[in-house]
């Protein structure tokens, strides 16, 4: 059987070879390209282009015999699929391709196709209106989250936060969340029932570009203007501004139709608000009465201090001490009452600030025995300062020379090196050296006063009014910015003084001796402008000769200053000002001539104490002091605790701003004190240089003085290093040195009034 099968197979194979058949082509392929001149076919690329120069290579880089590479592309790859791409057959792609997730829009399904069984908006799935027309059906679903029929909820990732839960708060639905409408269809003003306006108390349309309109302020630090959120608020206290603390139901508290109000909580809220308003009114009434009493006590104390400084003797000193003690007792009583008030429960900003400021009374918070000791030490130091006097240089019988006006004139006008050095040394020997022991006691008492007021030390207490945690660092930063300018001024002045006094007295690389700078403390260099002025003979800004020539006197200077403020629509001085102020040195009694402005806490009694002289500098100072009076009169209707500068430096800033305006060449020319033209470069440079000699060079002195006291209060400097540390800071900040060697037997900072009076100076 097997043999028969083999024979049949051989016969069939022979028959097939003997038959000649030609099969019809199954693919309608284009003919091959003709051969090139070299017998090779050009390579045909899939896009139909040919390259007659490219030679297809075989595996080893050898051309095959038929002109095609062993790895040549198949014909289907080179010439496309075996069908025409322009078939007229209907596209049978499904409406929802398998690669697209159910419920998610894509480019194909966003088209309005009339043959679609339903548009992508699921609301029309069973509707007869298969072709959804959004122009005709705009008002069809007014309560829907999105009026856009082509955007499904699943397209909004905000709905799938927290693992798919749209909103974990069951009291707030999605339509109440304005976040869902940002980056979506813009607001349509024709839709009055749009849910985005449902809880808008102002009735203003929702605007996604303005977060404060149409919804809750998204800023987490935002608080309502009428409420205060203290850090140490009692967590058990129910804030009347929040009906449901910690709950999203506070989002729309003004909606009368809000469905989530519990009657019991509503009654509690109403009772809480009533109690809150009653307590607030009670506190406001209490502070009003306190303000009246504070003004009265302040007026009595200021009057006693005025009598002492304008007539220095034992009787006025005793009266001043008694008045100060009485005022301190009143402040301490007030302080005890303020401490009993829970400041965390005060939500009125104005009332809170009043209580806060009255809770800090400085040395008055000390126990009575320590407070009495503190006041006596300060008054003893002031008595030493005010009573210090020296004899004239090389004239031992001419004595009784005081700081103002005698020593001040000598330091400003004398150019005798030895006379200046003698005056400088004698003043410090008679003033500062005699109060060193008292100052050491004062440091401990001042630190105790700071700690009683809940501060670390006196330095922390003194910087509190500036409301900055990094006040010293900020001062240092400002000084570093100004330092390059000061270094240039310092180098220029040192060279000019070296040329004037000689190289044997001033080293070109050493600090400048402090006594030749035209001031007892070296804080202002304006009095040596005749030596260092850049353009000698062109300094028209010194108007003292012209003032004397025109018959100026202290009263005229104050009247001109008053006209300056009235021209800016400010108030004129009250009549009592001219009757009670002291504008010149009285010939019959010693007074403290330090220029100062006084507010007697009555709202109508304001005075100036100044030993005015007809000079350019005093003319500027007069305007400075009246600027303080103008500030007094402008805040006279505020509560007593607010009748002061915004911070200790604000009063001085106002006075200095007025001084700069008055000292301008244009203003002096308008007054007739300058006859020359002001349009000159040399005059401008002289004017700016004179300002720098007063304002810029003052900064290192003020910084050194206050940095020295901060270091003393914080115990960074021992008592045995007080004077040495003072001159180290003076050299570090200002580049000045004492004219002779100093020791710890001296106390040179005490020669300054603000040290003797224990008054902050950085302002």
Automatic annotation (TrEMBL):
GO molecular function: carboxypeptidase activity; metal ion binding; metallopeptidase activity; peptidyl-dipeptidase activity
GO biological process, one term: proteolysis
Protein's recorded name: Angiotensin-converting enzyme
Disulfide cysteine pairs (residue numbers): 391-399, 593-611
Active site: 625, 754
Sorted UniProt keywords: Carboxypeptidase, Disulfide bond, Glycoprotein, Hydrolase, Metal-binding, Metalloprotease, Protease, Signal, Zinc
Cofactors named for this entry: Zn(2+)
Family, similarity comment: Belongs to the peptidase M2 family.
InterPro entries: Peptidase_M2 (IPR001548)
PROSITE patterns xrefs: PEPTIDASE_M2
One term under GO cellular component: plasma membrane
Sites where a glycan is attached: 311
SUPFAM superfamilies associated with the record: Metalloproteases ('zincins'), catalytic domain (SSF55486)
Positions contributing to Zn(2+) 1 binding: 624, 628, 652
Signal peptide stretch: 1-23
Ranges where the record places region Disordered: 32-263
Amino-acid positions noted as binding Zn(2+) 2 in the UniProt annotation, renumbered to this chain: 624, 628, 652
Cofactor note: Binds 1 zinc ion per subunit.
EC number, UniProt record: 3.4.-.-
Annotated binding of chloride, by residue: 466
Segments of skewed composition (Low complexity): 58-68, 199-212
Pfam families: Peptidase_M2
Taxonomic source organism: Anopheles christyi
Basic and acidic residues: bias regions: 69-78, 106-115, 122-143, 160-198, 230-254
């Amino acid at each position: 059987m097997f043999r028969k099968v083999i024979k049949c197979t051989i016969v069939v194979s022979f028959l097939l070879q003997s038959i000649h058949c030609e099969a019809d082509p199954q693919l309608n392929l284009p003919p091959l390209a003709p051969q090139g001149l070299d017998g090779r076919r050009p390579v045909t690329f899939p896009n139909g282009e040919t390259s007659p120069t490219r030679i297809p290579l075989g595996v080893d880089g050898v051309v095959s015999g038929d002109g095609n590479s062993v790895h040549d592309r198949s014909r289907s790859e080179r010439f496309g699929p075996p069908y025409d791409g322009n078939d007229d057959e209907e596209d049978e792609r499904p409406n929802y391709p398998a690669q697209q997730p159910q419920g998610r829009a894509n480019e194909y399904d966003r088209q309005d196709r009339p043959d679609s069984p339903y548009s992508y908006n699921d609301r029309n799935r069973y509707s007869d209106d298969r072709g959804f027309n959004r122009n005709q059906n705009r008002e069809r679903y007014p309560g829907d989250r999105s009026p856009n029929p082509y955007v499904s909820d699943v397209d909004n990732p905000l709905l799938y936060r927290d693992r798919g839960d749209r909103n974990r708060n069951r009291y707030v639905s999605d339509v109440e969340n304005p976040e869902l409408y940002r980056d979506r269809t813009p607001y349509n003003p024709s839709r009055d029932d749009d849910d985005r306006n449902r809880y808008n108390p102002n009735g203003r349309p929702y605007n996604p570009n303005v977060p404060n309109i149409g919804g809750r302020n998204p800023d987490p630090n935002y608080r309502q203007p009428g409420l205060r959120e203290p850090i140490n608020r009692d967590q058990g206290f129910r804030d009347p501004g929040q009906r449901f603390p910690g709950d999203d139901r506070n989002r729309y508290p003004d909606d009368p139709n809000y469905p989530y109000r519990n009657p019991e909580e509503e009654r509690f809220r109403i009772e809480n608000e009533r109690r809150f308003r009653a307590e607030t009114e009670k506190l406001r009434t209490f502070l009003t009465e306190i303000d009246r009493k504070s003004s009265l006590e302040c007026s009595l104390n200021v009057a006693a201090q005025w009598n002492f400084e304008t007539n220095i003797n034992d009787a006025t000193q005793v009266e001043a001490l008694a008045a100060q003690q009485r005022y301190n007792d009143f402040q301490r009583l007030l302080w005890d009452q303020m401490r009993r008030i829970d400041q965390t429960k005060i939500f009125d900003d104005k009332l809170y600030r009043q209580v806060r400021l009255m809770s800090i009374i400085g040395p008055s918070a000390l126990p009575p025995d320590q407070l009495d000791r503190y006041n006596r030490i300060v008054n003893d130091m002031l008595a030493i300062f005010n009573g210090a006097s020296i004899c004239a240089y090389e004239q031992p019988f001419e004595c009784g020379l005081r700081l103002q006006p005698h020593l001040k004139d000598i330091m400003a006008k004398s150019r005798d090196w030895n006379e200046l050095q003698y005056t400088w040394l004698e003043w410090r020997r008679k003033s500062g050296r005699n109060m060193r022991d008292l100052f050491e006691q004062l440091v401990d008492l001042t630190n105790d006063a700071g700690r009683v007021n809940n501060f670390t030390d006196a330095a922390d207490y003194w910087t509190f009014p500036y409301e900055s945690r990094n006040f010293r660092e900020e001062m240092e930063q400002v000084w570093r910015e100004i330092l390059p300018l000061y270094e240039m001024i310092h180098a220029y002045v040192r060279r000019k003084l070296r040329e004037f006094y000689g190289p044997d007295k001033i080293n070109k690389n050493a600090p400048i001796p402090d006594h030749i700078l035209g001031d007892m403390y070296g804080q202002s260099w304006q009095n040596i402008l005749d030596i260092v002025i850049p353009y000698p003979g062109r300094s028209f800004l010194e108007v003292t000769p012209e003032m004397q020539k025109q018959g100026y006197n202290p009263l005229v200077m104050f009247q001109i200053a008053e006209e300056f403020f009235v021209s800016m629509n400010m108030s004129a001085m009250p009549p009592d000002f001219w009757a009670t102020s002291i504008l010149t040195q009285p010939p019959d009694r010693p007074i403290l001539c330090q220029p100062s402005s006084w507010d007697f806490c009555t709202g109508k009694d304001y005075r100036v104490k100044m030993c005015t002289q007809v000079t350019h500098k005093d003319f500027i100072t007069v305007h400075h002091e009246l600027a303080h009076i103008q500030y007094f009169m402008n805040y006279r209707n505020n509560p007593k605790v607010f009748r002061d500068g915004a911070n200790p430096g604000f009063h001085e800033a106002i006075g200095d701003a007025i001084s700069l305006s008055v000292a301008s060449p244009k203003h002096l020319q308008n007054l007739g004190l300058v006859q020359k033209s002001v349009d000159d470069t040399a005059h401008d440079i002289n004017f700016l240089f004179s300002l720098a000699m007063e304002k810029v060079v003052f900064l290192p002195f003020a910084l050194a003085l206050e940095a020295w006291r901060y270091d003393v209060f914080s115990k960074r400097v021992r008592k045995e290093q007080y004077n040495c540390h003072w001159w180290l800071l003076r050299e570090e900040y200002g580049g000045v040195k004492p004219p002779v060697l100093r020791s710890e037997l001296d106390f040179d900072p005490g020669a300054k009034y603000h040290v003797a009076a224990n008054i902050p100076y950085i302002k």
